[in-house]
Automatic annotation (TrEMBL):
<dbReference type="InterPro" id="IPR051556">
    <property type="entry name" value="N-term/lysine_N-AcTrnsfr"/>
</dbReference>
<feature type="compositionally biased region" description="Polar residues">
    <location>
        <begin position="181"/>
        <end position="213"/>
    </location>
</feature>
<feature type="domain" description="N-acetyltransferase">
    <location>
        <begin position="31"/>
        <end position="180"/>
    </location>
</feature>
<dbReference type="InterPro" id="IPR016181">
    <property type="entry name" value="Acyl_CoA_acyltransferase"/>
</dbReference>
<keyword id="KW-0012">Acyltransferase</keyword>
<dbReference type="GO" id="GO:0031415">
    <property type="term" value="C:NatA complex"/>
</dbReference>
<protein>
    <recommendedName>
        <fullName>N-terminal methionine N(alpha)-acetyltransferase NatE</fullName>
        <ecNumber>2.3.1.258</ecNumber>
    </recommendedName>
</protein>
<feature type="region of interest" description="Disordered">
    <location>
        <begin position="178"/>
        <end position="213"/>
    </location>
</feature>
<feature type="compositionally biased region" description="Low complexity">
    <location>
        <begin position="1"/>
        <end position="14"/>
    </location>
</feature>
<dbReference type="GO" id="GO:0007064">
    <property type="term" value="P:mitotic sister chromatid cohesion"/>
</dbReference>
<dbReference type="Pfam" id="PF00583">
    <property type="entry name" value="Acetyltransf_1"/>
</dbReference>
<feature type="region of interest" description="Disordered">
    <location>
        <begin position="1"/>
        <end position="24"/>
    </location>
</feature>
<keyword id="KW-0963">Cytoplasm</keyword>
<keyword id="KW-0808">Transferase</keyword>
<dbReference type="InterPro" id="IPR000182">
    <property type="entry name" value="GNAT_dom"/>
</dbReference>
<dbReference type="GO" id="GO:0120518">
    <property type="term" value="F:protein N-terminal-methionine acetyltransferase activity"/>
</dbReference>
Length: 213
């Protein structure tokens, strides 16, 4: 999956001629997704270290090598600048996709990389065909992440108290986007944050996004 973004800068050229001519500088930026392999696993580790305020253990990365389409690296002009890593959970007779991590390096935000990765997640769910919903945790003060996910139909369904062991604030919102359709072919609504209040689940990795479109 490859997208090309055009970056435009308009500058006025004050030449000796009577009329001012506008110079248009166009910078071509190519963004795309690639597979995680043993050869680029170290790049993912470095990326996560720079993007997220928590450290992931070796088992986390070992499991990702067998994740296939559930883990993708995001490239900008052939440089790894972001990644999305997911898993599929089977609980209470429900099959749900959990976004473990989704993030982009600071200087490469606002290029649509977050959108590109999230759209890939939607396509994975569509191909699977039997995913009830997509969900993730976001730190309660991460307004950028909350705004981003809400734009794609995610809703806050609960608050996980003291979810993060070494972060402040330690609470996290559980966000979910239902993929089940109502008879009118609309998405079913999720419960509000006041309807549920779950305790911390320390075994689940931090999920966040710092990309803004």
């Amino acid at each position: 999956m490859t997208n090309t973004v055009m970056m435009n800068n308009n500058n006025i050229n004050n030449s000796e001629s009577k009329e001012n001519r506008t110079k248009r500088t166009v910078k071509r930026v190519t963004i795309e997704l690639g597979d995680l392999t043993q050869h680029n696993l170290k790049q993912l580790k470095v990326l996560n270290r720079d993007v997220f305020p928590v450290a992931y253990n070796e088992k986390f990365y070992k499991d990702l090598l067998g994740a296939g389409e559930l883990c993708k690296l995001a490239y900008c002009n052939d440089i790894v600048v972001g990644a999305v890593c997911c898993r599929i959970d089977l609980t209470d007779n429900r099959r749900r996709l959990y976004i473990m991590t989704l993030g982009v390096l600071g200087k490469y935000r606002e290029l649509g990389l977050g959108t590109l990765m999230l759209e890939h997640v939607f396509k994975v769910c569509e191909r699977e065909g039997n995913i009830d919903s997509i969900y993730l945790h976001v730190q309660v003060n991460n307004e950028t992440a909350l705004s981003f996910y809400k734009k794609f139909g995610f809703q806050i369904i609960s608050t996980a108290v003291e979810y993060y062991r070494r972060l402040e604030p330690s609470d996290a919102y559980l966000l979910e986007r239902s993929l089940k359709k109502t008879p009118s072919n609309e998405q079913t609504s999720s419960p509000t944050a006041t309807q549920q209040n779950s305790k911390k689940v320390p075994s689940v990795p931090l999920s966040t996004i710092t990309d803004v479109d």
